[in-house]
Each structure stands twice: as structure tokens, then as C-alpha cells.
Specification:
Blueprint: H1 2-16, H2 22-46, H3 58-72, H4 74-83, H5 88-96, H6 111-126, H7 130-155, H8 160-169, H9 171-176, H10 182-202, H11 208-223, H12 225-243, H13 251-270, H14 283-302, H15 309-326, H16 342-358, H17 371-389, H18 397-420, H19 424-430, H20 435-444
Helix pairs in contact: 1-7, 2-7, 3-4, 3-6, 4-5, 6-7, 7-8, 7-10, 10-11, 11-12, 12-13, 12-18, 13-18, 14-15, 16-18, 17-20, 18-20
Length: about 450
């Protein structure tokens, strides 16, 4: 409690030092964040009562077990964390951690271990109390949002009151980045990263920003691998834009991401491709043949050394679909089934974007927890319409650069989420760190001077 109170008092002091009258609204937004955190903790504790599996407990339980083990045998715990299963004792410890290992890694870093270790370290501050730990994480999440707000307010043409309401009171932020979700940690990393990147674009010679950006990227790499992958082309283009080009060229971002996509397609088509035999006419023989090819591809092209990006995506989607059936998920949504063909992936794009951006819609509301996300989707639809009818034609070159970077990163991330995640409940949580960034891009396209009824918002 003392650690939590000290942290909250620090944030309140930072907000109080701001110029009036915004500080009282920051106080209010901070209180809303803490209330949302307590509400999420209550629902996941007393409504979803299986705390061994639900989303705010599973990583906490493993982190808490590591914490208690550390208090008993610190050297053994440190050995396990650094080197994995070295002795019989560390193997026994690994078996006690339910989410330390994933069934299928597909050659990616195990982000479960990152979140468990973060929970392990936070247990030293919370004394293994999940509510206190959730409030600590949410306070840091709020501070990350505050830093992004300060940066955007100083450099973007979006009115500060609109920006404030959107960043601090949108339902996805209040629900899915409050507490001990994996998405909360990802959100914190992304908010700090984009805040530092925007500051770097406007202050090229501030050297500490390079170090902060590097730390943010490493944090995101260990929290969510493919977000790091989708960020890399944009950051590479920004550094070229800032330090190598004599003339400003905002199209460099688009060129960088187009090159990145072409490389992925090339790798999928020519690096360990899977070729199906189309001459087999007999349906029984063809079924057995495809089953064998699928089995071989799964072992070699998805899990083995001869990985193929299209096969990894195909089997990753199947894993998600199998898990949804095994858990009897009630909010399953449709997306075309991947088959290793890049044309199928292209057919998935409109379904994936619709699922990731505009669902849940009013037909999908079968659970009270979907209502905030439905309201956010409705608001997003209105914002998109405003960006069409009141387009901003006076963006600076730096605003265009940031807009294109965020848009490319957000679209790629939303397409992957919308394609691979078949359960609506998981989808709205997975997209939570991305949707605020995507909406910022849409807000930046609106000329708010042409929308007089929005200018009546005063505080």
C-alpha cells in the first residue's frame, strides 16, 4: 500500500504542476482509471471465478509463484530465470508454472515469460497483492498516456480538449489497459515509444531520445514480437528521413513498408514453400495426401528449421480456432481460413479489418463487457465520417510523416489480429494497444475548424 500511495502521490504532484485549468481534469481522469482498474479486478475475481485461467490472474499466479520461490531459494530461482531447466530442481519449478512455456512457439520469442517476469518483479512492490499490483500497473499506464498527450498537444493540430477526451476517456483504454493484462504492458511500451519518436522528429539533436527509443523497442520485442517487426520499417525510414535526406520526403514511410511487404511475400513464396499436388483426382487419396502434407509442413515449415511465413500464419490461425472450440467460446467470428496461399491472405484483409475495427457491433452484444467497445466502435465510425467530410488539407510534413507511420503500423497489426483471432472477446482485448493509435490518425485528418459543434467543448 505504501508503494502504491507513493506512486500515486508522485503522479498527482506531476499533474498539479501543470498549468490550470487542465490539472483538475487530469485528477478526474486519473480517478476514472483507478475505478476502472478496481472494476476489472472485481469482475475477473468474482465473475470469472476460475483464477487459474482468466486473463489477469494467469501471469500473476506464475509470477507470484516465482516470487515466493525466490524468497525461499533465491539462487535456484535466479538460475532458472537465466538459464531455464538446468537441474532437476529447476525442472520441477518449470512444471509448476502453467504459462511459462507455450505449446507452439513458431520460432518466436516467448512473450509469456516476459509478462510473468514483470509480474515477478512487481510482486516485490505489491507484496503479492493482485489489486495493489493492478493499480500500480494502471498508474504507469496512465502516466504513459499522459506523456503521449503532452507530446501530441505540443506538436499536433488536433484540439487539446478533443485529444484529452479521446486519450483518457475512451472505453478500450479504460477497460483493456487497466490492470494486469498483457495488453497493458504492450500499451505502456507503445505509448512511450511513439511519444519519444514524435519528440525526436521535432528535436533531432536530443540524444537521450535515441536511448529511450532503443529501450522502448527492446521492451516491445519481448512483450509482442510481431509489433516489433511491424515497427522496424517505419523507424528505419524515420532515421533516414531525419539524418540522411536533405529534403523532406514523407513518402519514404510508404516506400519502406511496401518494400517490407514485398520481402515477406518473396520469403513466403520462395523460402521453403509448400507445393501441393493438384493431379490427384480420387477424393479419398487426395484427402490422405493433403493430411500427410499438412503434417509434414507443420513439423518442418511451422515448428522446424525450414520455416515458411505463410505456413506459420496458417497453423497459428488453426491453433487459435482449435483453442476456441476446446474452450467452447460463444463469440466466435468469421475470417477466411488460411491455406498457405498469399491470395487467401489478401482475401482475409477486408474481413480482418472489419473484425478488428468495427466489431463488436450492435448484433454482437451478448455480454455487458462488450458495451464499452461497441460505443467506441460507434464513435470511431463517426470520426471516420468526419474525416471524409471535413478533411484537413493543411498538415505539416512532420505530421504527415507520423500519420503514415502510425497508419502503416496500425493497419498491419489490425490485419494480423483480425485474421488470427477467431474469438470476439480476445480480439477486443488484443487490439486495445493499437486502436488508440489508429484513431489518432483519423483525428489528424479532420479539420476541426470546419466542425463548429465540436468547438463548443470547453474546459
Amino acid at each position: 500500500m505504501i508503494n502504491l500511495i507513493v506512486l500515486i502521490l508522485f503522479f498527482l504532484f506531476v499533474f498539479y504542476k501543470r498549468k490550470k485549468p487542465i490539472n483538475k481534469y487530469l485528477f478526474l481522469a486519473f480517478i476514472f482509471k483507478l475505478i476502472a482498474t478496481i472494476s476489472v479486478w472485481y469482475i475477473y475475481t468474482y465473475y470469472y471465478t476460475d483464477t487459474s485461467l482468466n486473463d489477469i490472474y494467469k501471469y500473476f499466479n506464475d509470477g507470484n509463484y516465482l516470487y515466493k520461490k525466490f524468497l525461499q531459494t533465491p539462487s535456484e530461482t535466479i538460475q532458472f530465470v537465466l538459464d531455464g531447466s538446468i537441474s532437476e530442481n529447476t525442472k520441477a519449478l518449470s512444471n509448476k508454472l502453467l504459462f511459462w512455456t507455450k505449446p507452439n512457439q513458431y520460432g518466436l520469442l516467448n512473450d509469456n515469460q516476459t509478462i510473468i517476469l514483470l509480474n515477478f518483479f512487481l510482486c516485490f512492490l505489491s507484496n503479492s497483492n493482485l489489486l495493489i499490483q493492478s493499480l500500480l500497473i494502471s498508474s504507469i499506464s496512465f502516466y504513459a498516456t499522459y506523456k503521449l498527450y503532452e507530446t501530441l498537444k505540443n506538436h499536433f493540430s488536433i484540439p487539446s480538449r478533443i485529444l484529452f477526451l479521446f486519450l483518457f476517456f475512451n472505453p478500450s483504454y479504460l477497460v483493456w489497459t487497466s490492470g494486469n493484462f498483457k495488453e497493458t504492458f504492450i500499451y505502456i511500451g507503445l505509448m512511450f515509444l511513439f511519444s519519444n519518436l514524435i519528440r525526436l522528429i521535432y528535436r533531432r539533436n536530443e540524444m537521450k531520445l535515441h536511448l529511450l527509443i532503443f529501450i522502448n523497442l527492446i521492451f516491445i520485442l519481448f512483450c509482442k514480437n510481431y509489433f516489433f517487426l511491424f515497427l522496424t520499417p517505419g523507424i528505419f525510414a524515420i532515421y533516414i528521413y531525419l539524418f540522411l535526406l536533405k529534403k523532406e520526403n514523407t513518402k519514404l514511410i510508404s516506400f519502406s513498408y511496401l518494400t517490407f511487404l514485398l520481402l515477406i511475400i518473396f520469403a513466403g513464396l520462395f523460402y521453403n514453400p509448400v507445393n501441393f499436388e493438384n493431379k490427384i483426382k480420387d477424393p479419398v487419396k487426395r484427402k490422405l495426401y493433403i493430411k500427410k502434407i499438412n503434417s509434414d509442413s507443420y513439423e518442418k515449415n511451422a515448428l522446424g528449421e525450414n520455416r515458411n511465413i505463410f505456413e506459420v500464419l496458417r497453423f497459428k490461425q488453426r491453433d487459435q480456432q482449435f483453442e476456441a472450440k476446446a474452450q467452447k467460446a460463444r463469440s466466435v467470428i468469421y475470417a477466411p481460413t488460411l491455406d498457405g496461399d498469399p491470395i487467401t491472405i489478401l482475401r482475409c484483409v477486408p474481413f480482418a479489418l472489419f473484425n478488428a475495427i468495427f466489431r463488436p457491433n450492435i448484433v454482437d452484444i451478448k455480454n455487458v463487457l462488450f458495451i464499452p467497445d461497441f460505443l467506441l466502435n460507434l464513435l470511431l465510425f463517426i470520426i471516420i465520417l468526419l474525416s471524409i467530410f471535413y478533411k484537413n488539407h493543411f498538415l505539416s510534413s512532420k505530421e504527415k510523416l507520423i500519420q503514415r507511420f502510425i497508419l502503416c503500423f496500425a493497419l498491419m497489426s489490425l490485419i494480423i489480429i483480425g485474421t488470427l483471432v477467431p474469438v470476439l472477446g480476445n480480439l477486443v482485448r488484443y487490439r486495445a494497444p493499437i486502436l488508440p493509435l489508429f484513431t489518432l490518425v483519423i483525428l489528424l485528418r479532420i479539420d476541426f475548424k470546419k466542425v463548429p459543434w465540436l468547438n463548443k467543448l470547453q474546459f
